[in-house]
Design brief:
Among the domains are: 19-226, Rossmann fold, CATH 3.40.50.300; 401-495; 501-630, Alpha Horseshoe (Serine Threonine Protein Phosphatase 5, Tetratricopeptide repeat), CATH 1.25.40. Helices cover 40% and strands 10% of the residues. The chain is built from 20 helices and 15 strands. The protein has helices at residues 11-16, 40-43, 52-68, 87-90, 101-122, 127-131, 154-164, 215-226, 239-257, 259-264, 298-309, 420-435, 443-449, 457-471, 501-514, 518-529, 548-571, 575-588, 593-606, 609-627, and strands at residues 24-30, 35-39, 45-50, 76-80, 95-98, 143-147, 171-175, 188-192, 198-200, 207-210, 276-277, 286-287, 402-404, 410-412, 499-500. The strands form 4 sheets. Strands 5-4-6-7-3-8 form a 6-stranded parallel β-sheet, with helices on both faces.
């Protein structure tokens, strides 16, 4: 209406708004040169027929855009067989590859069933209506299948039936198949006749020219997407300098073979007149004398040739090779400064690997053995095989993820994919949910992961969606981080199949502290075997502020269990066992003097005077390092 001015758009409100068309992709340009975008969720099945090469080029352009566009937030893309080769390595967070259509159908079937259950729970009849609701806003991640070819058969029919049923969900297929029967009441078929040909889009009747990526351009796009994530340095290549260096080497070799002939030639190196040297193969002439073939002065070319002989210096820090026999002087500054217990004679000849650090029971050293103070390894003693916490027998691919908090935070056996720059938020969210199951509102996640910040739902939903995709699903298609509609009480929680070492520690500790027999000691040792260091170690101090109360509880519980087991084993004259228990506790609470006292008592009972003195020196160093400015100094009149 006249006189009405449009209000300026609130940028903050736009930042918090969800993408209305997450699977939006460009197809080409209209007659006015404007880019034409299409929502693949609305289309469902996009079939590219006509010229096979041009159809493949159009599919490659769509694939690269879906894998790289930042507009939708989070997408799940499955590439079938050799479709868009290399895209899964270039964009591993979004793109996965499957070699069989059956696997792709199973994945899409699970995705479709989950979203239709959520639609039913919300009472929404369409996907667009569901996206307008505040509930389950993180549940509508699009899943797109890229298929260069779809074979004829039941699997293809089942796949197409998923898109023929209602209500429609956030999924689509883009295919350039020539053989499968893709005649549908729903979906689009675009005839690819060439990059200069104009086609008419179904439904809207808009004439456009399709865009595509030829095979060389697609390879360039894959390289461009891959390079930012590469963790290795590659020396710069210059074909001109490479050929220049080869020519110099050939010239030097020829000069060595016929030095007199070169000196006597009128166009030799001693000739003051610039000249052109033609090689015997009839190739293009190369200038000689004061300039190179590109007109560069010889002295500059010599400098670049010298650099080319040493084009790359590797500054990567690599671990030193493991020595076969550890010496008393060998130390690792990253390990706790403790004195280990006497080790078996076999362990002195071959250091144990991290995968086999709990394989043998520590045996007391001979009475004549010398206790030499060395740095404590990450696990100072080894346990019998039956005391090691191992995963149940079976296919490792079917194992559920595990949340490891008793040391550096690690998520084990996550079956999905995620970009490295998104991993820290996913790990923190998974750790938070492991300790705080049953959250009834997403704002609790905001307060934990982004304290003091105003977080829009787009950011939160993207983190939740990526974490769900990263943790993966079990063999039955159930997500290890289920949607709130699938939890039974509409609360955020991990699947019961996801394990947590802190919960396992609590279970073993309760059993062990309640029993004073071999089974009780066994349970305590299983609990301590889970400790890898201080809980939540090596973290960014600006993150995990919510974990501080849990860290204090974990450290206290580990120290109590270590003190109890060390006391029991010392009273049973098992001095190596007593030392192992105390050392495991000190991994989490290095400053705990009660555990250091347990080390002293065990060394004294074993008659290890030298080891006792070394342990006392270590405690003194720890106290000096931790006390700092709080160190007590006597006043002059007290001296």
């Amino acid at each position: 209406m006249p006189g009405i001015q449009p209000r300026p758009v609130d940028q903050d409100a736009l930042q918090g708004a969800d993408a209305p068309y997450p699977a939006l992709v460009s197809l080409g340009w209209d007659g006015s040169g404007r880019l034409v975008l299409v929502g693949l969720e609305h289309v469902g099945v996009l079939h590219l027929d006509g010229d096979p090469d041009h159809a493949r080029h159009v599919l490659q352009a769509i694939a690269v855009e879906l894998a790289s566009t930042p507009l939708p937030g989070h997408l799940e893309i499955t590439a079938l067989a050799d479709t868009a080769a290399g895209l899964d390595h270039a964009a591993p967070e979004r793109v996965a590859r499957t070699n069989t259509l059956a696997d792709a159908v199973a994945e899409l079937s699970s995705h479709t069933a989950e979203q239709r259950r959520t639609l039913t729970a919300l009472g929404a009849t369409t996907l667009r209506a569901a996206r307008l609701q505040e509930d389950a806003v993180d549940s509508w991640t699009p899943h797109i299948l890229l298929a260069g070819e779809l074979p004829d058969g039941e699997q293809t029919k089942t796949l197409l039936d998923l898109f023929g049923a209602l209500p429609r969900v956030a999924s689509a297929i883009v295919t350039a198949s020539e053989h499968a029967d893709l005649t549908l009441e729903e979906g689009w078929t675009l005839h690819c006749a060439g990059s200069d040909e104009t086609i008419v889009l179904p439904d809207c009747g808009l004439p456009i020219k399709l865009q595509g990526l030829t095979d060389p351009h697609f390879a360039d796009a894959i390289e461009l997407l891959t390079l930012p994530a590469a963790d290795t340095d590659v020396p710069a290549r210059n074909d001109w300098l490479d050929s220049l260096l080869e020519q110099e080497e050939e010239t030097e070799a020829a000069a060595e073979d016929e030095p007199e002939q070169d000196q006597a030639s009128p166009g030799g190196a001693n000739s003051p007149i610039p000249h052109t040297v033609v090689d015997g193969d009839g190739e293009a002439p190369k200038p000689a004398g004061g300039e190179d073939e590109d007109g560069m002065p010889a002295e500059y070319a010599d400098i670049e040739r010298q650099e080319l002989k040493y084009p790359y210096t590797d500054y990567t820090v690599r671990p030193r090779e493991t020595e076969t026999t550890p010496t008393p002087s060998t130390s690792s500054p990253s390990q706790p400064p403790l004195t280990p217990m006497p080790a078996p004679s076999e362990a002195a000849t071959e250091p144990s690997t991290p995968a086999a650090q709990h394989e043998t029971e520590p045996q007391p050293a001979a009475a004549s053995a010398t206790h030499t103070p060395v740095d404590l390894p990450k696990v100072p003693a080894q346990l019998p095989p039956d005391l090691v916490h191992k995963r149940a027998e079976g296919d490792e691919a079917e194992a559920a993820p595990g949340v490891l908090l008793l040391g550096p935070v690690t998520i084990r056996q996550a079956a999905g994919r995620i970009d490295s720059n998104r991993l820290s938020a996913a790990v923190e969210l998974t750790s938070y949910l492991a300790l705080h199951p049953g959250l009834d509102h997403p704002h609790a996640i905001d307060d934990a992961l982004w304290p003091g910040r105003l977080v829009n739902k787009t950011m939160r939903n993207s983190v939740i969606s990526r974490t769900r995709s990263w943790l993966g699903k079990n063999a039955g298609g159930d997500a290890y981080f289920p949607r709130v509609q699938d939890t039974g009480d509409n609360r955020y929680r991990l699947s019961p199949a996801v394990t947590c070492d802190w919960h396992q520690f609590q279970t073993f500790a309760r059993t062990g502290l309640a029993r004073y027999d071999e089974d009780g000691d066994l349970a305590l040792r299983r609990a301590l075997a889970l400790v890898r260091g201080r809980p939540f170690a090596a973290l960014d101090p600006q993150r995990y502020t919510w974990a501080e109360p849990a860290v204090q509880e974990m450290v206290s519980a580990i120290a109590d269990v270590a003190f109890e087991l060390s006391t029991r084993r010392r009273e049973a004259a098992d001095h190596p066992g007593a030392l192992w228990a105390a050392h495991q506790g000190l991994l989490a609470a290095e400053e705990n003097e009660m555990l250091h006292r347990q080390v002293f008592l065990a060394h004294h009972a074993a008659g290890g005077v030298d080891a006792l003195r070394a342990a006392a020196e270590r405690l003194a160093k720890i106290n000096e390092g931790s006390a700092g400015e709080w160190t007590w100094r006597p006043r002059p009149h007290n001296c």
